[in-house]
Amino acid sequence: TLAYAEYTHGLVPGLALQAGAQAVRSTRDYEDRLRPAGSYERRFDGFSPKPGLLYELAPASRLYANVSRGFEAPPFGQLVLRNNTPMAGAQKATTVEAGWRQRSDTLTLDGTVYRSHIRGELLALDLQPRVLGLVGLVRGDAARGQAEEGRAGLVPRVHLDADRLRTAHRE
Fold it and tell me: In whole angstroms, what is the distance from residue 164 CA to residue 147 CA?
């Protein structure tokens, strides 16, 4: 991460506008001493804004909603599959999220629903199930994920989490 900033501005009592942004730079530098032609250096730059609203129902109870962009450079192992395969690009996502948070001295409650649209996701394919570790990678250009999450906890020791995730990939 090169930089991260977040700002909250009260619009009217109980309602605030939030704005955040993250600038990311990742460098992948690989030197292949046996096959110098297989060496590479690649830089990935990304910018991820996040506007949102925060509404205070009560001093310890809030509703929130935001839209965010995500950016993730590929790991080293996913950059180059073979010499004749193009280098992978960064993964980008847009997520819409809404939720509720309740806090007290003895209880915390969170509920969130969100939907993400992911572009450029790297997906693993098992090329040969009988050979351990033989995996190929493909680009998932239109993956969508949708989830609901709920959390409850008694401060400070007991936590209960419930998550539901649904993912769809389309080529």
Answer: 5
d(CA 109, CA 104): 9
At which residue do the structure tokens 């590929």 appear?
Answer: 74
H/E run at residue 167: strand 158-170
Could you tell me how many residues make up the chain? 171
Question: 27 - beta bridge partners?
Answer: 43
SS3 88: coil
CB atoms within 10 A of CB 140: 18
pLDDT in tens, 16-68: 999 999 999 988 787 778 888 777 788 889 999 999 999 999 989 999 999 99
Residue 74: Cβ-neighbour burial (10 angstroms; 0-12, 13-18, 19+): buried
pTM to 2 decimal places: 0.71
101 touches 61 (CB < 8 A): yes
Nearest in space to 24 (alpha carbons), one of 79, 71, 59: 71
